[in-house]
Amino acid sequence: MPYIKQDHRKIIDEYIDELVDQAGKIDGFESGKAGIFNYIVTRLGIAFVGENVRYAKLNEIIGAMECAKLEFYRKLAAPYEDEKIADNGDVY
User: Fold this and answer.
1) Whether residue 92 has pLDDT greater than 90
2) How many Å separate Cα 42 from the centre of its chain?
3) Which of 1, 32, 80, 84 could be 71's S-S partner, Cβ–Cβ 3.0 to 4.6 Å?
4) Could you give the residue ranges of the DSSP H alpha helices within 6-73?
5) Is residue 47 a contact partner of residue 53, using CB atoms and an 8 Å limit?
6) How far apart are CA 51 and CA 46, in angstroms?
7) Which of 73, 74, 45 is nearest to 60 (CA)?
8) What DSSP state is assigned to residue 5?
9) Is the dihedral of CA 75, 80, 82, 83 positive or negative?
10) 62 versus 3: which is more confidently predicted?
11) Distance CA 21, CA 54 (A)
12) Which of 62, 38, 37 is nearest to 48 (CA)?
């Protein structure tokens, strides 16, 4: 997962915060979060590929999505699962 510079994050984070805020105003947001998130990620992927679609660009964006998924799991889901194992015991 490429960690971008702090000054670059400041530029992007303001827009992400606004996007999340606006998405939260959609009727049915709580029950449709996954679909809304999927739409946002798909639109971003399309925008980053651009009009000149080539396999290399598609592969690059899909790879970035996969790495983002893995980083999300590593940083958020795995610690949560470890906490629940400590609370409730392991599955086996």
Assistant:
1) no
2) 10
3) 1
4) 6-23, 29-49, 55-72
5) no
6) 9
7) 45
8) P
9) positive
10) 62
11) 33
12) 62
Q: Which residue has the tokens 């795995």?
A: 78
What is the spatial distance between Cα 42 and Cα 45, in angstroms, rounded to a whole number? 5
pLDDT at 3: 81
Model confidence pLDDT, tens digit, residues 38-88: 999 999 999 999 999 999 999 999 999 999 999 999 999 999 999 999 999
State the helix-helix crossing angle for 6-23 and 29-49, rounded to 10 degrees.
130
Token representation of residue 42: 């798909």
Half-sphere exposure of 54 (CA within 13 A, CB side): 4
| pLDDT over 70 (residue 2) | no
Structure tokens at 65: 């999505």
CB 50 within 8 A of CB 57: yes
DSSP 3-state of 62:
helix
Give how far the C-alpha of residue 61 lies from the chain's centroid of Cα atoms, to the nearest Å: 13
